[in-house]
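[scheduler] slot 2 assigned
[scheduler] job type: sequence-to-structure, two independent chains
[scheduler] chain ordering preserved from manifest
[runner] begin chain α
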Amino acid sequence: MDKLRALTVFRRVVELGSFKAAAEDLALSKAAVSKNINELEDYLKSPLINRTTRNMHITDQGQHYYHRVCHILDELASADLSVIESSHNLSGSLKISVPMSLGLLEINPIICAFMHQHPELSIEVVMNDQYVDLIDQGIDIAIRGGGELSSSSLKSRKLLEMQRVLCAAPDYLAAAPDLREPRDLIQHQCLIYSFSSSARRWLFTHVVDTTDGAAQVQEVDLPPGPYVVNNGIALKQAACAGHGILLLPKLFVDEELKSGQLVTLLPDWQAETHSLYVVYPYHKEQSQKVRALIDFMAEHFAKPQP
C-alpha cells in the first residue's frame, strides 16, 4: 500500500462525499479509489467508510481518523512549500475568491498591483457573492465580509472595519416621508442586499449626550421593499435611480456622495459596521505566496484611505 496516496484518497472521498467524485478529482479510476480505501481499512483493521450501492457513511472511527489525517497532510504540504518557495521567487498559482462588487471596486486593483511585484505568479480570481467552500473549490485565499469560520481547517485575518452609510438620491427624498430616526425607515422604500446576514434587520446606534455616555440603539425590521438584489453595485444603481434608501459600506458610494447623486441620511446615527476579512485554509499558512498576498492586502488597508 502507498500509504500517502491512500490517505490522500481517503481525505478526498470524505470531503467530496463520493468515490466517483474523488476519482475524478484525483484523476484515478473508481476501482483505484476503492482499492486504496480497502487497503487502508485492512491495514487499520477498522471500517472507515460504510458504503452501499446508493450512499456512503463515515464511521465514528473514520471521522476521527479524517481530522488527524487532514492535519498530517496539511503539515506535510506546508513543509514542502516552505522548502520549495524559500529558494525561489514567488511563482506557481494562487486562486482567490472575492465578492463581486467589492472585488471590482477595491480588491482587484490590489491584486493587479501585487502581480506587478511578482510577475511569475499566475492568479485566478473567482468573483462571486455567494459562500464558497475553500477546501472543496481549491481556494487559497477568500475575501469575506465576516470572520465566521465554517471549519476548524480555516483561519482568518481582519483587514478593515467598514463603515456603512445610509443614503438615497435627492429625487427619492423630495417625495418621501420625513426621516428623523431609524424607526421611520419602515415608512420608506428600502433597497435590500439579499446576501447580507441581516438583510432586513438594520441596527443603528446614537450616542446620547448623557452623564453616563449611554448609547441609544434602534433595531429596525424592514417590511418587504421594492428591490432586492445580490450585488452591491446593482443596489447602488437602483438608489441613484431614485428607487429608495440604501445601506452599504462607504467605499461603495464615496463617489456618488461627493457628486451629490446620493445624500447621507441620519448622520447622527451610526449603522452597524461590517468587517472585512481574508480567510484561508490552515495548511496554506506556511505558503510564502499566500502570506505575501495577505501581507500586501493588510498593508494596503493599513494606509490612510483618501
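[runner] end chain α
[runner] begin chain β
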Amino acid sequence: MPPADTRPMTRRETEVRRFVRARFGLRGTLALHRHALGLDLLRAPVNVLLSPVFLLTRLAVPLLRRLGAVRAADWMARRRIFLPSDLSHHIVDDLTGFIAALDAQGLGPKAPPEAVARATADYAETRNAVSEITTSVLVLLAGLLLFHRATPGVISLAGPLADMRAQSQAIQDFALGSWAGGLWYGIFPRELSTLEVIATGFGLAVLASVVTTFAGLLADPLQLAAGTHRRRIMRLLSRLDRAAEAPALEREHLLARMGDLTDACLSLWRSLKG
C-alpha cells in the first residue's frame, strides 16, 4: 500500500475542503445566517443601492493604473463601499482564523495581516455577489412562471406584477361583483399609473434585498457541491503566497451587474415597443 501523500499543498487542500464543508454545508450555512437576523435586514437595501457605486469604483482601478495614477488606484482598490454586515463579519472572522490555523501548521501563506484582511474582505464581497446572482435567477424564474416572460431583475418584474395586482383589486372591488368585474376588466383592462409601478418596484427591491441576505442558504450548499468555495479559497491562498494583488473586479461582481444592466435594457426595449 503506497504511503499517504503529505505534501504541503495536498494537506492544505485537505484543510480547505474540511473548512468549506463545515462553514458552507447545510448546517454550517444555517448557523451562519442566524447572524443576519437583525440589523443586516436594514443594511441589505442600502447595499443594493451601493452596488453600482462599487462597480464604478472597481472599474476605475485598472483605468487609473493604465493612466499611471498608481497611488490613486491603490487607494480606490482599498475602499470598502458596502456597509459591513454581521454575516460578512463572521465570514471574514472565520476565514481569518482558518488562515491563521494554516500558518500554525506550516501550511499557510504567512502573509502580513493587512493582506489577509483585504483578501478575506474581498472574499465576503464576492460571496455576496453570488447571493445577488442567486436572487436574479429566482426573479427570472418568477417572471417565467407567473407571466411567461424573461424578468432578469425587479425593474422588468415590477410592471407585470403591478398590473396583476391592480387588475385583481379592481375585479374584487367591482360594483356588480367579482364575476362581472372579471368580464368587464377582461375587455377593458384597468389603466395602470406610473406611481403604482414605482411603488411596486420599490417594494420588490426591498424584498429582493432581503432575499439576497438569505440567498446563501441555497447558494452555499450548491457552491460546496460544485467545488466553487474550495477553488475560490485556494486561489485566495495562492495569491497570498505570491503577495499578488487580487483582481480589481471578480467575475461574480460582473455577472451580478450584468443582470442589472440586462434588466434595464430589456425594460427600456419593452417600453419603446409600447
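[runner] end chain β
[qc] chain β: Confidence is low (pLDDT under 50) at residues 1-5.
[scheduler] slot 2 released
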